[in-house]
Amino acid sequence: MVSFTSETTLNSSSLSSIQRLNRLIKQHYTEKSSKFYQVFPILLPYIHYNDIPTCALLNSSYNLLVKDTLWNNPRFDKIAYIHDALYIFNNFLKHLPYIQTSTASRIHQLDLQHLQESLYDRVNPKFLQIVTQYCTHLSTLNLEKAEFFNAKSLPKGTWALPHLTHLNLSYCPHVNDEMIVVIARACRQLTQVALDGLTKHKGQGLAGLAAECDQLSSISVKFNTAMEDQAIIALAKFRHIRLLELDLTGCTKLTSTGFSMLARYAAHLTTLSITQTNCKLDDIRKFSCIHHFTESLDISRLKQVNHERLAVWIWESNYQKLSTLTMDATTATALVKLSQQPHHLLDTSIREVTNLKLMDLPEHTPMSYLYQLTSLFSRLTHITFVRAYFETDFLRGMYRTPSPEEESSITDAQLDVFNKSQLQITATVVREREDNVDCNLLNW
């Protein structure tokens, strides 16, 4: 308690203030000595995010405990009780200039992909300018499917997000090359960038990222159907970039020129996906990283590659770190045939693969096929079959799994029996179209 020697000189308002202060101090020490307060930090990770604001409002002591959790990654969709996430976000922007600098500096992640504009409610057009000005320690920004994000959203004049390392602009319909270049100049510390489904991106944007962001290590440009060779040639030319992950799924305009340059200079790729591209087998052979550094490789649905020749290349190649492989079921069938050669030809490093994914599994594929694969890939722990569109699906008028238990073909029921019969391997069947909850036409 605070003692005063000259109480007579104090007015009544000062006395009441001192008494309130004394009560707060006493309450503070009482709370800190309580058992619940002591175990609260242990319970905090298990408390639902919706309840975190309630904990923060208990008093100043608990507010300090939950402050990092609440502000590190504000979830506007989780704390919206009466209003929607858009209203909460706009309210957040309105109050951001007035909160303490130390509190604003705790904001490291912003996930805006759940914001949906309506006819009457719009996102503050200056949202990025406000975020840039006050969220100075922002490291992750997710704008996936943000239809409200366009060229007018970019701050005017000089701006920067010096701590931003992760950026997701996937499926933003208004994002183009010019916008990406501006963002690259303002966010030079980017390490991971997702630009999936950008139909207006032709390649200058990715080239700008390669030129401006020296720390760039992971890039995803799935289904950038307008992107040309200049983009990946730029990635190859800027040798100061140590690119580790690259996903080129569905980039149909890329040619052998771009793939050859990429194979020559991107020598440290640990993750590579060239599925649904025009990459040829001769181009694949040039990727020396596949033999030395690549851990995850997707070479499925390559229309210009012969399955038998691809299987021979897979069989004869030497892999030092490959653990996850995605390929067509037809290619895997050719591999199984190769595995039936005389014993002296069975020395292949493909056996070290632990995760296998096979695309377009034909209907009525026998279970013996699975056992042949498990014999070939002796270290396998997970195998996923992505089934083709079966005729019976269309005849029945709906997509359902034909899984009568008496069938010996690969079905959900048979794989369930297989999984229960042993503990080493988990086998699953995936139906891309009906398992995909996103109805975007890009996924059909």
- How much is the radius of gyration in Å? 28 Å
Estimate the mean pLDDT confidence.
85
Number of helices: 19
Q: List low-confidence stretches.
A: 1-10, 394-400
- The rounded distance between the terminal residues' Cα atoms is 70 Å
Overall form: globular
User: Beta-sheet strand percentage?
Assistant: 5-15%
Biggest sheet record = 12 strands, parallel
Q: Biggest sheet, strands in spatial order? A: 1-2-3-4-5-6-7-8-9-10-11-12
Instruction: Specify the oligomeric state.
Output: single chain
**Share of helix, binned:** 25-40%
InterPro entries: Leu-rich_rpt, Leu-rich_rpt_Cys-con_subtyp, LRR_dom_sf
Pfam family, one: LRR_6
GO cellular component, one term: SCF ubiquitin ligase complex
Protein name: RNI-like protein
Compact description:
The chain contains 19 helices and twelve strands. It is an alpha/beta fold.
Describe the structure.
The protein is an alpha/beta fold and 444 residues long. The chain is 38% helix and 11% strand. Helix 9 (204-212) runs parallel beside helix 10 (229-237) and helix 15 packs across helix 16 (367-376). The longest helix has 22 residues, at 12-33. It is globular. It holds the Pfam family LRR_6. This is RNI-like protein.
Notable traits:
444 residues, alpha/beta, twelve-stranded parallel beta sheet, globular, disordered N terminus
Secondary structure layout plus pairing:
Layout: H1 12-33, H2 35-43, H3 52-56, H4 60-72, H5 85-95, H6 101-104, E1 109-111, H7 127-134, E2 140-142, E3 166-168, H8 177-186, E4 192-194, H9 204-212, E5 218-220, H10 229-237, E6 245-247, H11 256-265, E7 271-273, H12 281-285, H13 289-292, E8 296-298, H14 307-316, E9 324-328, H15 329-339, E10 355-361, H16 367-376, E11 382-387, H17 391-396, H18 412-421, E12 426-430, H19 432-435
Parallel strand pairs: 1-2, 2-3, 3-4, 4-5, 5-6, 6-7, 7-8, 8-9, 9-10, 10-11, 11-12
Helix pairs in contact: 8-9, 9-10, 10-11, 14-15, 15-16
